[in-house]
Amino acid sequence: MERRGFLKAPSIRAKLLLCFLAIALVVWGLLSGWALSTTRSFVEGKAISAFRSAVDEGIHSADNNAAKVETLADLVGNLGDVEQYLAGSNLSPYDEYRIARDMLSHLETLLRGMGIPAALSIVSNNADIQEIIPVDVEGLLSTSGSQSHKDALGQVSIALYRAKRFQQDAMTVIQSNWYVDARNGATGWRQTSQDAQRGSVSFIKALPASPFSSSRGVLRISVRLEDIVVSEQELYLFDGQGELIFMTPEQAPPELPEGISLNGGDTAAVADGKAVLSGRMENGWQQVWIIPYDAMESFSAVLYQFFLMLLLSLALALVLSVCFSGWFTRRILAVRDSLYRFQQGDYGCRIQVKSSDEIGMLADGYNSMADHINRLIHDVFQTEIRSQQEHLTMLQSQIRPHFLYNSLSSIVRLCDRGDVGLIREMAQALVRFYRISLSKGRETITLQEEIDHVSAYVQVCAIRYRGKFQMRYEISPEAKSCFVPKIILQPFVENALEHGMHPTLGILHIEISARVEEGMLLVEIQDDGVGMDENRLREMEKEASSSGEGYGISNVRERIRITYGEGCGVSLLPKEPHGLIVRLTMEAQDTSGAKPPSF
Length: 599
Known about the structure:
This protein is of the alpha+beta class and 599 residues long. 51% of the residues lie in helices and 18% in strands. It has helices at residues 9-77, 80-87, 93-114, 134-140, 178-183, 193-198, 225-228, 295-343, 358-399, 401-417, 420-438, 447-465, 477-480, 490-499, 534-547, 553-564; strands spanning 118-124, 156-162, 188-190, 200-207, 217-224, 234-238, 244-248, 267-271, 274-280, 286-292, 444-446, 469-475, 483-485, 508-517, 520-527, 569-574, 580-587. Helix 1 packs antiparallel against helix 3, helix 1 packs antiparallel against helix 8 and helix 10 (401-417) runs antiparallel to helix 11 (420-438). The protein is elongated and about 170 Å long. Residues 1-9, 135-154, 169-175 and 547-551 have low confidence and may be disordered.
């Protein structure tokens, strides 16, 4: 017979090889693009990170220098000599000289201790104090041997003015309005017109009130911007309003690239071969650093190694594709050959593939399927044989010769007594019993018909036993219409009558109840006869299960199991204080007037 429905080994191997190669090429291309982009981003990120560290260090240094100036302003504002001099009036020349000498000495010490060249100016609101300017200070302190004070942007410069000097015509005095602005609340860091000309910046602060005066004046400390902001790179410094106040080298500021904002925090961008980074200082200024940077120059060092690794990985993928395609093909061919042999009728053929992947799972599934099919074939044969035997046994049991013999004997005795009524009643009960037993060849009847069958049997037995037992039925309406295999209750009632009676127990009570619970039909036959203990019940169930003889427990249990499957059957339970409970569990198949199913 020609093999059909299976791929030949060369064909599937070629397809697998092409698939592996296609996947390898696609993965290679995607990895190449991704790795190039990722590596370049990584190198660029590392460079930007290094630049950011330098910028952060520069900003931190600038913040420290600015903090020194602000700290110096706080110290000067709280200096006792300054308070005494600004509050003094009607002082003797000697006291004025002494206070001025101490004040200037302390201020000079503070300025030199800051480590940054600075010019300190104080504008006093006291019109009675003596002004001190750098020239006057030089003559005033000549007798003390102190170092002379240099120009305003020299190493140290100290000056003290009266407020009226800044309230005169701006053309005849110092050209600055910083004092007036400070009196109106404009204090802090700012660049005056003088600062803009000299490349400096000033920190302006109103002097706090003191016990000597309720209004002391304004303090100004001027420093060069190049002493505050230090950078070897191209640097641009903007104030809090976004105005450029300093740049190095001195040239026109460039247009900031996208991503750099003067209103944001720390940002970084790469444009036109330069890295542009910005950072904000604690006083609100923003520094913009422009650092030359060539990404390809840094990236080319690893580019060659990267391409070499990609080529090696492509060659390795080609070798692995050839190996894996052959490996998969061999296992698939093993599965194909086994399926073909099974198709030809070799049901004992099994696939010998030892692996835990999908092909191994397919082989295990095939082996399990073949085993299951073999078991099914065996079970079908056994079930057919058992079904024929049980059907024959059931037909033979329906006749029940001893029951018919005992019933006919009872009728003869009744004839001798001339009791025509009982004879009629017994004959009618026998007719009804055997009519339901035959059931026109049907194997399933409703539970109500099965109860009628038991009632006919009990009616015959009632004539024979004469008041020695009583029957009771408790059947729910939904249980009456359920289909059940026929003759499954009468054998247990017969066992109760034959083995449950005892003179010491009095009248035997038998009760049949039925109900439907969660889709299951539960039927119980209870009696208060002799009964048996649990050990005897287990022995009897084993004997009935192994022997399979008689129309008793094994017969009914097997028919229920075949009809409804595992989980349904017959169980025997002892009843307290004596008696027996037989429980039948079946699927509740309520037909509601439909034809009985064919199990």
